[in-house]
Design a protein that fits this description.
With about 210 residues, this protein is of the alpha/beta class. The protein is built from 4 helices and 10 strands; from the N terminus they run ββββαβαβαβαβββ.
Length: about 210
């Protein structure tokens, strides 16, 4: 299997969570210069991004302090595309996740990237499902839209995961990714003291 890019492309038309800054990529070079330059405007949670504990927790760890060892290593992708309701603890307990520390959830959300605008009906975790992942010892969990919990939720899923030190990876595109085990490489922008950071995330076959 070749390296699979599971990041979305940052562009002007990419959906953003309501209230987040819109993405802008504007020419910024001197008209008289032969060099091109682009001015970037985006939020810390644009596109594929990490949620650090500081996203919700007072005095929580910031994105630049997350160890790279958490963001690089074996991971498991599970397919939940048949789900039409929020992902429950029962949905997860039926999967063999023993010993897994990085988990990516492929859902029907990946199809939403092909639609214009933000979709409020995306799938996310229930609080019980989040608690189940903490109990399993998951250290990183990723999902294929802009939040780990449903749009109508109140932040409990984020709180349960972030208080337990679980890194949340949101905004993935897992279309065409089969269930199974991979090596995850996820490198966020090294932004000082931020609550999150856009990142490039890829999957590749596990080293032999």
């Amino acid at each position: 299997m070749p390296i699979k890019d599971i990041s979305v492309t940052l562009s002007k038309g990419l959906p953003a969570f309501p209230g987040d800054p819109a993405i802008r990529l504007d020419p910024a070079g001197d008209a008289g210069s032969p060099f091109q330059l682009t001015r970037l405007q985006l939020g810390s949670h644009a596109g594929t991004h990490l949620d650090a504990p500081a996203h919700l927790l007072k005095d929580g760890a910031t994105a630049d302090s997350i160890p790279l060892a958490t963001l690089i290593g074996p991971c498991r992708v599970i397919d939940l595309c048949d789900r039409t309701q929020p992902i429950s603890a029962a949905d997860l307990s039926r999967r063999d996740l023993a010993g897994i520390t990085r988990l990516l959830l492929r859902t029907s959300n990946s199809e939403l990237w092909q639609r214009p605008g933000f979709e409020k009906g995306y799938l996310g975790l229930t609080p019980a499902a989040a608690a189940h992942l903490v109990k399993l010892g998951i250290r990183l969990v990723g999902i294929d839209y802009l939040s780990i919990e449903p749009f109508s939720a109140d932040g409990d899923v984020h709180r349960i995961l972030l208080e337990a030190g679980v890194v949340i990876l949101e905004g993935l595109d897992l279309a065409g990714v089969a269930s199974g085990d991979y090596e995850l490489i996820c490198l966020p922008l090294k932004l000082a003291g931020t609550d999150g950071a856009p990142c490039r995330a890829v999957l590749r076959p596990l080293p032999a």
